[in-house]
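Please, structure for the following, as tokens.
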Amino acid sequence: ERGMGFCIFNNVAVLARYLQKRHGIERVAIVDWDVHHGNGTQEAFYEDPTVFYFSIHQFPHYPGSGSESERGAGPGEGFTLNVPLAAGAGDREYLDAFKEKLVPALEEFRPQFVLISAGFDAHRDDPLSGMQVTEKGFRQMTELVAGIANRHASGRIISMLEGGYNLEALPRSVEAHIRALLKD
């Protein structure tokens, strides 16, 4: 209903609905690794079983939402998966969560399209977080998500740039992410 943080429009939510309404995509997965919980994205699809929303984020941290108990409601119950991590988490914690939680959940959901809210503010050099993710970690997360898209969505995947505020770490992280998408 209103913009918060650095966002006025929720691009990934608009795109998910566009894919469903204009292109007949029935099941969309949104993978959000921005350091801040995507409270607006979660709220948009909280009661919707056609969109699976995954967020891995620093907690406690702005905006203060995204606990593990927030799993959706009504017909959307179980289609929201939050992985809140304490400050200091890095590649190992992120990749463990992807392998143990995200991948099994998406294998079951079988998305027809995968969207990534690709925030790089969890980078170890980013000034707005206390996380320790490296370029290698972002690349490995991308490879796992792209694998889901290849197995279930005919490779259909779109990545949307979200946060990232260290002007040296951001381009390195984005490059690692794009190389993983291109299998370079």
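The two ends are 40 Å apart (CA to CA). Residues 29 and 52 are 5 Å apart (CA to CA).
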